[in-house]
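Re: the pair you flagged

First of the two:
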Amino acid sequence: MVQANLDRVTGSIDRLLDAALDFREMPGAIEQVRHLFDGSKICLGYFGPDSHPDDAITNASDPDLNAFLYRELMPDAARFAARVASVPIGSAYRDQILFGADFRDSRLWREWMAPQDMFGGMASRVLDVDGSFWMFDVQRGRRQEPFDAAEFALFERVAGVMRRVTLLHQQLGGVSIEREMARRALDELSLAVIIVDRAMQFAYANAAGDELLADPAGPLGLRGGRLWARAASEQSGLKDLVVKASDLIGARGQMLLRTGDAEGRDLSLCVTPLSAAYALPGRANDVMIVARWVEPAGGGLAAARQMFDLTEAEAKLALALASGLSLTEVAQQQGIRMTTARTHLARVFWKTGTRQQSQVAALLRAAELPLRIR
């Protein structure tokens, strides 16, 4: 029997729990467990319809043997997995008891396990996941003594920890996927989303926010890791809005940054408290800033036609009006008579439920989706 003192056991368990939070640490963690049991081989494997031997976390993986297993021995491997699947979750077992003496006559053992010095092991099915499962396994080699009763009892305890580790990893993995999907969705928006703390210290920006902050001629930027308005006259107003929103009194403020750029665009900001449900640990007072360029509707021909069932001519006239042109200017620009322009406008009014040109412009701007152009 291996002399496993308390420090070695607790050290191995602590390493496994750390690996639950960062699965990249799992190879080192299970290697420490292998040394704890003086095993020849250790494995945390995932078995399911889409799994592959290379997916296993082990102390010594042989790609050639795994390719051979996947190519030649899958019927044997499927029978092996089915037998393991019959073991209750969390229960530990010994190979020779679960599979019987004739298991060593199988090609799986002779051609895949024996070449890796897997001559007697303890294992546990630690977690079920949608018809697949995680299995934890420690083996000893040909020239080693079998695991005794005390070692098996210790393995049962470690397997219980491994069950919690894999369950936590599964839960955290789902959270990570959800966060990644949310991040990608935010990056599709043409709205700039920026998160700062009460002191204007920068924490996050989506893709549009990164572009806004990186523009040296833009109205917002970063200085020493803090958000600032490049116009000194607007910095104090922005800071006041951030402080009020950070005080969690539900204060939501808006302001317009005058840029005077070549395109004549201003930047509209909305500053709002970030819900505690979305705050990171230790950042309960963060503030979200949503920014959008204020500019006339200049595109969206297909969208205008689809949303309001406009003809192409009607949509072009409506978008031109939304860009700020008068009806006379639109007629001249598009080379149509005023009577034709008035007819188009009357049809636009009827299809959009509006009565004035200003209402048409506001409606088109409001209906425009804030998605980034690819």
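Second of the two:
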Amino acid sequence: MLHTNIRKLSYSLTLFILYLWVYNSVRRFLPLLDDVAQDFCRSLRHRVETEGVGETGQRSMTLDPSPDLFRFALEGQSSCHVLYGERIGLFSSSPSEEAERFIWAVERMLATTPPLLYLPPRLLLALRAPLWTQHATAWDHIFSHGFCSVSRLQTVVGGASDGRFLGVLGQLMEAGQLSSELIKANITELMAGGVDTTAVPLQFALFEMARNPGVQERVRAQVLSSWQQASGSPQKALQGAPLLKGTIKETLRLYPVGITVQRYPVRDIVLQNYHVPAGTLVQVCLYPLGRSPEVFERPERFEPSRWSLDAASGGGFRSLAFGFGSRQCVGRRIAENEMQLLLMHVIFLLQNFIFNCGQCGPWRFFEIICEIYQQFLSENW
């Protein structure tokens, strides 16, 4: 927000959600996400076959999937096959210089954001602290990348596009209902905000399937059956595999990306005999909600099928990872389909692959994060 104020840029509007929900966009952007998901799986298969240990056809390897998942989210949703209708080649053997700069900018933005949540940004700005300088420089390049994409598409929109989908940006420009500045703000925030929020849940989903082989096999069986009946249609394949959607919901139940959902009631309300005046900040804490035995039976278990039963019983507001109503996450439909598609292809294209957990337990993971964070502060403060 401070960067936006200093650079005098427009704020995004939740009106952008009208495009994602009202326009029949899923059918159009799903094939774009599907292409990137298949490229990810081919890249993973090639890596295991060339770098893995063991006999041919039975190779295995231990790897950290986070960099590849980060690139998948960047290439598919954010960088911007869906948003801009173009690829920047993050899974090619030699990404372009612009692609590498964009990756650096998003990585720097994500790395420098957490400390700024607890340190006064204006003080850092006044002191010209390296932390703020890197953060601002990263955002400058992200906005520059978005503005260049807008300019490129302006020469195409209204001309002959050969019927091809020009991405969400192209559709907004063709509709002509939002100004150029608002389009830039919406697109850029969705572009930068849809990377780690997709890549991290995917990593946790693979982690949970790895340590729950029974769940992994049930999801695999349903995906294979659905794919055989879908006649090559990704949308039909997803519709026939509700356990995929359940896997994403179950992952976000246990590992929510956002800690809370916040609202200011517009009128006085009473919640469980508590009077809440209008304008009071009300927060729903997602982490304890998702792990409460009062809300979920045996909450410690990773069980995607619980959401099929939940849908049948009409239990609506137990899944709030994307928020709800007119102010829910603007990229919800893209993110949900993106994560489900990747899991489907990981299971289908790599159907002979079994995922197992390594020896690094959760406490060691926490220790590593602390070590990295301390090193980051010492280098940038």
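The two ends are 21 Å apart (CA to CA).

-B.
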